[in-house]
Design brief:
- This protein is an alpha/beta fold and 328 residues long.
- Helices cover 41% and strands 12% of the residues.
- It is built from 13 helices and ten strands.
- The longest helix is centred in the last third of the chain and has 16 residues.
- The protein is globular, with a radius of gyration of 19 Å.
- The protein starts with a strand and ends in a 9-residue tail after the last helix.
């Protein structure tokens, strides 16, 4: 396993990490979840990603129970949660990034995960109804209380992250250390264009999600429409439409699959290695519902030496979606 610093921080995270979205507490049983976490940990994974909204809190309960029964040293792994959506009764203050929900959301996550502190806490979405000063101050309060070590954002726009950094600087507080955006061969703009000045000037780290574009880049949808996937889970209609709505993506995926075979590898490993190749990616969050899936994708870094400039050019010729940078 390779390890990278989380942005400019001193925290070392495994280049491949493991997340529980959709699977824990919903798509798979607790025994399988335990097996998957063990496979990841034994392979060198030291970052496990979670959120309050995943399976409406059940995902954190499952992960917390697993961690409680392991003999792993707490210093050997990092755990994250995310606050914003809530999941209780959707009453005022049960969601968003107010001081009240941030403080209560963090405390609830700690109880579900059975932990004394979180290594990372993400603001799961920007909150237009809460002053950014209030959110930054609340996150710093949690740091001062020792309940979180680092805080960050997820799916925030460039200017929203910059605003948080500016407030932290003005108040002499700790700004966001990392952002968790979607990044894959079909979703590239934030990592390869929008965030470039954040990387250069502020050392922002990234914990990228959906490297396989919700399963599209496994090739499973190339010639079929399987029904036992996350896109067919109740409540995931929005994700299915976004992922499979563009037929052109299917055609490109077929070409990428052919290229992967020419390289003597699989499409999932090619897609994950392609993400890991980006120096601004701190860690690639893997998801899996079956042990064999995770065992395969955990070997993706072996492919990095094969991603030569010639191979990357072939990929770009297939994708035809490289973000165009502004010229000044």
């Amino acid at each position: 396993m390779e390890y990278r610093r989380l942005g400019n921080s001193g925290l070392q995270v495994s280049l491949l990490s493991f997340g529980s979205w959709v699977t824990f507490g919903k798509q798979i049983g607790d025994k399988t979840a335990d097996e998957l976490m063990s496979i990841a940990y034994d392979a060198g994974v030291n970052f496990f990603d979670n959120a309050e909204i995943y399976a409406r809190g059940q995902s954190e309960k499952v992960m917390g129970h697993i961690l409680k029964n392991k003999t792993w040293s707490r210093s050997s792994y990092t755990i994250s949660s995310k606050v914003f959506f809530g999941f209780e009764e959707d009453k005022p203050n049960q969601r968003g990034l107010s001081r009240k929900h941030i403080m209560e959301g963090c405390e609830a996550a700690l109880k579900r995960l059975q932990l004394d502190y979180l290594d990372m806490l993400f603001c799961h979405r920007p909150d237009k109804n809460t002053p950014i000063e209030e959110t930054v101050l609340a996150m710093n309060t949690l740091i001062q209380q020792g309940k979180i070590l680092y805080w960050g954002t997820s799916e925030w726009a460039n200017d929203e992250i910059m605003a948080a950094i500016a407030v932290a600087k003005d108040y002499k507080l700790i700004g966001p250390t990392m952002e968790q955006p979607q990044y894959n061969m079909f979703e590239r703009t934030k990592l390869e264009k929008d965030y470039l000045l954040l990387f250069r000037d502020h050392g922002l780290g990234t914990t990228i999600w959906s490297p396989l574009c919700s399963g599209l880049l496994t090739g499973k949808y190339n010639n079929a429409n399987p029904t036992d996937t996350r896109l067919n889970i109740e409540g995931m209609d929005w994700l299915k439409e976004k992922t499979l709505g563009d037929q052109g993506r299917i055609e490109k995926t077929k070409q990428l699959d052919k290229l992967a075979k020419e390289l003597g590898t699989s499409l999932p490993k090619l897609a994950i290695a392609w993400c890991a190749r980006n120096v601004n990616v701190s860690t690639v969050i893997l998801g899996a519902s079956k042990p064999e899936q995770l065992k395969e994708t955990l070997t993706s870094l072996e492919l990095l030496p094969k991603l030569t400039e010639d191979v990357i050019l072939k990929i770009e010729n297939i994708l035809q979606n490289k973000p165009v940078l502004a010229q000044y």
